[in-house]
Please model this.
Amino acid sequence: MIERYTSQAMGRIWSLKNRYQKFLDVEILASEAWAELGVIPREAAALIAANARFDVGRIDALEQETRHDVVAFTRSVAESLGAESRYFHYGLTSYDIVDTALSILLVEAAALLHNGLAELDQVLTEKALRYKQTPTIGRTHGVHAEPTSLGLKFALWLAENRRNIKRLERATAAISVGKISGAVGNYAHIDPFIEEYVCHKLGLEAAAISTQILQRDRHAEFVSTLALIGASLEKIALEIRNLQRTETRELEEPFYRGQKGSSAMPHKKNPVTSEKICGLARLLRGYAVTALENVALWHERDISHSSVERVILPDSTIALDHMLQQTIRIVSEIVVNEKQLAANLELTGGLIYSQRVLLELVECGLSREEAYDLVQGYALQAWESGLRFRDLLKSDQLITEKLGHKKLEACFNPDYYLQRVDYIYKRLGL
Model:
């Protein structure tokens, strides 16, 4: 079972020790495959599997001399072997090892991210159900529009999160590929059986065609998917930031005992974690652009992508892992100010019910244009005068004649706007 994702777990995946262990796993399986073909003695392959070791410090020292990490790795391992070392890294080029190992690392990282998305699914589901029938004001262009359900906000994020789970699964499949095809990908010095054997043992698919490397459209798809997931987390964080404004105060990040919001102003409770998530989402988008730049390389390969990937692949998975953890914490402990939700519904003095009044007037015989202009006139008067919209409507003889007191009052009930919430939830399987 995959370890529950934590920052430490993701960090361990990208440690040099784990990276070199994946190198060694590939090398040992390649030796086994050569032995299956009878190219190297089975005894040699068995000794390599039993005795091959590496030392990260020794690899670092050798790399200072060789200026080549894979050569440093193979020399470090050779020091742990005897005469069988002649068969270690037999017929392979560096990126047969590096790229196949990198795919394993990405699959491991993706599994932890998948766990995080699954946990976020759970907390979003819980909030969507809890606040299913809680009225709140909906806003378009930042301006009060019409009442809606607070639960629908969480349900919307939940649906997007589920799409992200599927996106990550597709991107993981794209990167679950290995290659052991030699210096330019034509198997000149290696039997394709070696590739098939190693990839099968590692749970990877053998690339149908490669050069010296796996093609970087795969990695670009993976990083772009991480950036898209980050954008979804930013979407959640940005809404929380907006709803935590002093003028709004409908939602708030959890604020813990002993926490400080400002070094100067003791009253401050700032949405700092949500702001952090928004900032890291920008970083992920930058990494996605960089990954796309890696797709086009010279001929059968150059090395321009390598230095980039040593930064963007660990960093993007670690950053998204952190963003997921923080989003889960915020959503699960979100502070919902229901009194403020109710107060904000009345902030405009009933203007948010203008469309319902309009439609009721149309149903009572007015043309849509006549009804719109009539309602808008009183709406604008309410905006400018501060008078209550409902009172202004009641002062109009035509409106009161058409609707009557009871029907007019019914137009100002927020529950009307929640009548089809069950329908939406059913479509989401909630």
